[in-house]
Amino acid sequence: MLETEGDREAQRRIERARRQIAITLDLSNLQLSGLAEVIASLTHLQRLNLSNNQLRELPEALASLTQLQVLYLQNNQLRELPEALASLTQLQVLYLQNNQLTELPEALASFTQLVRLDLSNNQLTELPEALASLTQLRLLNLHNNQLRELPEALASLTHLQELNLSNNQLRELPEALASLTQWQELNLSNNQLRELPEALASLTQLQGIYLSNNPLNPDLAAAYEQGTGAVLQYLRAKAEAEITLNEAKLILIGEGEVGKSCLLGALRDDEWLESRPTTHGIEIKPVIVTHPDSGTEISLNGWDFGGQPVYRSTHQLFFSAPAVYLVVWKPREGPQQGFVKEWITLIKHRAPDAKVLVVATHGGPGQRQPDIDRQEIQDRFGSDTVLDFFHVDSKPDLLNSCTGLAELKQKIASVAASLPEMGRSVPAKWQRVREILQTNDKAYLPYNDVLAICDRHGIDKEQAELFLRISHRLGYLIHYDYDPTLRDIVILKPDWLAKAISFVLDDETTRRRNGLVDFEHLGELWSNPPFPGEDGYKKELHPIFLKLMERFDLSYQVVLDPAKPSNTSLIAQLVRDTRPELPNWGEQPEAGDRQQVQICRIVDERGQLAVAEGLFYQLIVRLHKYSLGRCNYEKSIHWQRGLMLDNDYNGRALLEYVNTDVKITVRAAYPERFLSYLTEEIKWLVENFWEGLRCNVMVPCISPCGMNAPGNGLFEVEKLIESKKKNRHEYPCPISGCGEWQNIDRLLNNAPTAQPPSPEIGIQQLQNIVKEELKIIRKDLVIVDRRGQERFESLSQDQRKILSQIDEEFASLMQMLSDEAKDGPRLFSFKPVDPSFFDRPKWISTKLQITLWCEHSRQPLPALNPHDKKKGVYELEVSREWFTKAAPYLKILTGTLSLVLPVAASATKLMLDEATYKGIEEELDLGQKSIESTLKGSDLTTNLSSESNFLDRQQGESAIMAKGSILRELHALLKAKDPGFGGLVRVQNRRREFLWVHEQFVDEY
């Protein structure tokens, strides 16, 4: 084999290490395909780095390096490890990620001193029993392998603190894992898990569980959304006693007057009624079916949906698994008039795994028989979605039999039994309480009454709160625990609420006013329903209905007269259908502004263009805080297919449908921030509310254009990024007949979210550039406040750009730890308590003063609690090891807060006074200096720890896990001091992300 320059350089380094009796040798990034036997002479070596080479095998000579403690072998092409490695008994750190290992040798049993083992991104299908010998192991990374099961041997790793098993094929976990009492972090994302062993609830040290992208039992999935503490609490409840559930929804949808209510009555064996009233909203009634083979009784909640077109958007709120869907139509009106395909499309977009039965009604002698193209429907939607077709006469004949009903009922039973959620186990006492609430004849109960019912069944207040949050998430009931108007009521019957909403949507007066309705008129509708036979609602419930409509993104309160309190709401579904004139929006942006455009292309699972039914109604409500009319409704610009927004210094935006695409245009000094936010908001809403749809972010073509029409060709951002990674600089225009190749970098200028910068680099650069300018901006804003002028209008374009960039950095920080926010706050500043801290470069442990911040106002709690400045301020003892491990995250955090501070809370109109500002500035400065001082004084062991963490952070899931581990440890320390986190309230924004905010800002959520 020819000797390469890399081989020669390796020999030089080996020879130098031999002469110097070195304990460290770095042979990384030399493109080595083999190692010289002479390396065996380096018997004093303690640390060897062979990463980022092309090694396919390791030489036996490595067996001579018996003093080796750290061995880096990541990013090679190793297929196996030699048994000779068994002699490396002093090994403490072994990195083997990004190789091609398919199995591990028994020699592994010799590594009894091993503390960190990284085997991520290999091809392991099983783990050897030899793993049981690694009793000192603290970190084991098996991310992205092909493991289907775990050996009982893992139970021997009693010192294990972090285990990453994400991106494997695990279907269950062994109960023996409960013996790992030191566990702190467990990553199980991207597996095939439905349940977790109840025994895991006994792991009191467990601070973080990652379970995303698993087909979890719905109750467990809902608990996971609430955080690690909720998962453990759920498992504890289940460990006491569990019960098997055989229940699901039976959802009947279709146009009005096609016989849905009659069919539901027939399925229930109700007495036939010649004249049934039209369904307004939803009606829910139980249906019991029996599986024909097993004899299992299945309880179905039959949801009968009103068929009027105006209800379609609101009906989607209640489409959820597990469910069997019946699409009902009348043969005499034909499938086209019954909109059969449209209804199946609506289901498929909202619940992509739904099981649908198509049912023709009103048949019988002399009636038209079903005429529908079954093959075309199954070809279009899939035979795994549309399972069968039925023809049923809901009216009993002379023998009291309904034609086709028995066959339909039998099929419903077999489909329900096949649902993956059927037969799931849940905590027994939770189910008992659920059944009591479901069978209660009242539509709602006071919150304290529900707590009392829970208490009588052995559920304490803390667990009851979790039970309510999970039941709310799964649609069993409705309860918003932090909303002042809604927290004291638990709605037991969602159909009761849907009916109240339907009265508003059907109201002619509200429709004529393009959705505007005052509270008095709503009260009249709810007290005296416009439909015969419907009962009115008590007056004290009216504010609750209105608040719930706001929670469901159906309405928001508007300001008609800035000088008077508002009592008028906008029902977004009823806004005008024509586009109004757009103010201050010419062909080109104003001087000093730039324009950026992105397109959200909505497609179904086949990649076909699709419509997200009711998208813009929801956007009008969700984004109303940016409405041009937020202070005066007359200035609002919105219609059924578009809206205009203004976000102060972040610019003005126009959102509109172009066919089925959503086009977003932003004009600002720095349009990237607002464009990024709006794109993320639309993408999240489409992909989370309509689970069967996805949103591809596109950018328009630019000049020069081969067809002299720049802007018509659309490029998918993801594909542009992939091409750029492959060192391609241009991409062909997708428009037929245009041969132009566009520059990828110029196209991506319209995609601010395409390549997020490294947080450390972005913050450092911004600090260097804008430090002095921020002080000027702060002074300008304080002057504007004193004069009572409109904010931001007096700022220059450069100043607005700086503020937008700071918003961008802050959003990036918050997104980095969105999962950890489930269990505690993310924002805090710190400083050493001991003034002599900087005179002790080799400190072992120290006390830090930790100050919590509000994540809404971006202010520290002492600034928001002027009468109790110690609230949210703590002294914590931390070790040097923890502080060094936390340093990279603390640096990002402190740097971001230093940027935010000069203009903190500018959007909430609560600017800090000068004395408070200076005090916080000093604390942030001391925090930054303490990080630098500690890292400067670190010895070799600490550096190794830092480097190990750095390597972890480079690996996707591990990056999140590393920072998350730091924050979870801090949460544990803070909870020991103050479980209430200084009075911060955990809320959820419209993306269901958790934030910790001061109590005065709770109403914002």
What does this entry look like structurally?
By secondary structure, the chain is of the alpha/beta class. The protein is built from 27 helices and 37 strands. Helix 8 (374-381) links the parallel strand 15 and strand 16 (386-391). It is globular. Residues 754-758 and 939-960 have low confidence and may be disordered.
Structural class: alpha/beta
Report Rg. Answer: 32 Å
Our count of helices gives 27
| Uncertain stretches | 754-758, 939-960
Biggest sheet architecture: 9 strands, parallel
- Report the span from N to C terminus: 67 Å
Shape: globular
Helix residue percentage: 25-40%
Number of strands: 37
**What is the average of the pLDDT values?**
87
Question: What is the secondary structure topology, with strand pairs?
Answer:
Layout (H helix, E strand, L loop, with lengths): L4 H16 L3 E3 L20 E3 L20 E3 L20 E3 L20 E3 L20 E3 L20 E3 L20 E3 L20 E3 L7 H9 L1 H13 L1 E4 L1 E7 L6 H8 L14 E9 L6 E9 L6 H4 L7 E7 L4 H4 L2 H11 L4 E6 L13 H8 L4 E6 L13 H14 L5 E4 H12 L4 E3 H10 L4 H13 L15 E3 L2 H12 L2 H5 L3 E3 H9 L14 H10 L3 E4 L9 E4 L22 E11 L10 H8 L15 E2 L2 E5 L5 E7 L2 E8 L3 H18 L3 E8 L13 E3 H9 L4 E3 L8 E3 H5 L10 H29 L9 H20 L11 E5 L12 E10 L4 E2 H4 L8 E7 H21 L13 H23 L3 H14 L3 H21 L7 E4 L5 E4 L8
Parallel strand pairs: 1-2, 2-3, 3-4, 4-5, 5-6, 6-7, 7-8, 8-9, 11-13, 11-14, 14-15, 15-16
Antiparallel strand pairs: 10-17, 12-13, 18-19, 20-22, 21-22, 23-27, 23-28, 24-25, 25-26, 26-27, 28-29, 30-31, 32-33, 33-34, 33-35, 36-37
Helix pairs in contact: 2-3, 2-12, 21-22, 21-24, 22-24, 24-25, 24-26, 26-27
